[in-house]
Amino acid sequence: MTEKKDEMYRVELIVSALLRIGVVLSAIIIVFGLVMLFVTGKTGYPGETYPTSLTTIFSGLSTFKPYAIMMFGLFCLILTPVLRVVVSLFTFLKEKDYLYVGITGLVLVILVISFLIGIHA
Fold it and tell me: In the chain, how many domains are there?
């Protein structure tokens, strides 16, 4: 019984570290974009436009456009809890806890569907 508790404790540590790293990394990327924006005084895009699709964000990253960098930081922030769900799914699979595998899989499907709906809206 203590072996299972120890394993769950390690999983909780991994998941909490993953969430912290995701948030800190996102913040660093966004601050870097803000610093570039204040230093250059330019967004990298004409007028009041900004990148709204993944392709424009990644193409803007390749040319170091401040708005694209900030949007990439926000994208990383959005992906952090999704990655937590994926890690939980594999953890429950490893433990052979199929009820939670089903629940976590359903949550992941709902997240993916919501992202796909958001892309087409």
Answer: 1
